[in-house]
């Protein structure tokens, strides 16, 4: 059955717009990798330090911003200190705004509860450089404050003082973190990744090279559920349901017409 | 909401719709937005690379070396000079000079990759494949877990066989390779299913912006 | 000078990184840290390559008046505005951030979201169970797609409400990802990694020289 592809486009648009207007709310169950991630963070005592690498730009913010927000909320609620960095050049403004938004909501204090160190070019050398001395890579934070003048950085020099590294990744940065930070410095790593790279993360999860994994917008919704702060992740995964259903229906229709056509030809 | 935030939302909405207009057909609005996107994002990248790359890694050590703030400062002038060789790209006669910094970066990357990739991706992944058999031997793995462990080994061996081109794929190798293809198809199917989720999420975020921030239809 | 020195540099830095990895000696660690600081300094300069290539491409388009050459002026306009404001006032300047948040960010996000439409259209047109392998791919994709959203379990639980099996679609999705998908991915990781290691050895030993480019 030949159908103008613009009809498919309109159907996709309607499958997003209508559920969004209707505000559908189906329950979300929690998968094991997400639960592991949450449990690991929950088990950290107050005063622990998490380094979050926000390795994504605007093209992936829809999937990764909601899970990053949920994690930041959990950290600030539990008095876990957060060091933010990014290996992606078009991320700093986006990340700075995100951290400040959550910090303002949770009344976290910059320099004491969190710090955003900004961007540095060169994935591997930055990851290895942090292992030798964070100050050799980041002499200041994103605002230009000398790292030696930031209270929460006083006793943090390298991975030895970081209890967990979380990479929110839209590309192969996560593999660089595993290959260099985990192998060379024994750094515990958890990841939140975009849909495109979810499938390739599972071998690392099984070996324990990743202690937890959040899978795209589904992972974000699950984490919001666990943290008890439903937000965009929960809202969008419900809208997502209708588009997935539409695509499955289109695939079925496409196959039925294909088999009918083939039977006629035979 | 202040004036500039409001203007910002309208600009963002206009550019968003300009890009979506390509779904109907190619048009000047789309081409304008597409080219503006390239220019603006490269411009942003240049500024950030200068402020977060050049200045902390090259300019500050250079100033420290020249002003004699650090005893080892002059050593840092060597990599700065090597880095400056990238500018040889501007002169066709001297373009070959960029081979020096590229060779250092490639040599560093290759050298550091060998031991780390070996451990992270060969040893650890092999260990992960074999480890469940220790649990089977100890009798701590259920029947279903044992089935999964065996399935995993079969899958890994067959997938590797498919990529092994040093022998002709005939007889048993052909069948192992065929099973490998089946596993790969399931892997690619998983990737497709997850990619759909990712791309649709991006669309939902844009529609959310248009309906809530721009049109104020939903809260 | 043009080829031998880069090959020697590549060899020296490559070997240095391998040896320092296995030696805890203080000299070895000093070399390791010094090499990292060198590549941290050299790395940012590579930006010159990307920028020059972009400028050359669009300058050529304008000079030759190729089709739609006028849009190359838009590229330069966007680039110039960002660079002038950003370098003069810094990346945290309010105008620079406004341009990022209201021009770059929405376009970047929208550009990639177009793929949602194309992927749906492609699924309808090309996703056919023509062979056994294609059927496996299709069935897996459908299960993962439905397992990824709460609607999958909702439909399953509505239809199978009489049975004791709840949330089976999301469980099936998780099982696929944890088992056959894992095996395939691990096979790929092992294969690719062996390739990376052998290629790295060839580069360090000067057997693989394509990174030097053409010419003498």
What does this structure look like?
The complex is a heterotrimer of chains A (266), B (219) and C (216). Chain A has one domain: HUPs (Rossmann fold, 3-Layer(aba) Sandwich). Chain A contains 11 helices and 6 strands. Chain A has 266 residues and is α/β, with parallel strands linked by helices. The longest helix of chain A is centred in the C-terminal third of the chain and has 34 residues, at 232-265. A 6-stranded parallel β-sheet of chain A has the order 3-2-1-4-5-6, sandwiched between helices. Chain A starts with a helix and ends with a helix. Chain A has helices spanning 5-22, 32-43, 61-77, 92-106, 123-132, 134-137, 173-185, 195-198, 202-207, 216-227, 232-265, and strands at residues 49-55, 81-86, 114-119, 164-169, 189-193, 213-215. Chain B has a domain at 142-219. Chain B is built from 6 helices and no strands. Chain B has helices at 3-20, 28-66, 73-84, 99-138, 143-162, 172-214. The longest helix of chain B is centred in the C-terminal third of the chain and has 43 residues, at 172-214. Chain B is extended, with a radius of gyration of 28 Å. Chain C is built from 9 helices and no strands. Chains B and C meet through helix 1, helix 2, helix 3, helix 4 and helix 5 of B and helix 1, helix 2, helix 3, helix 4 and helix 5 of C.
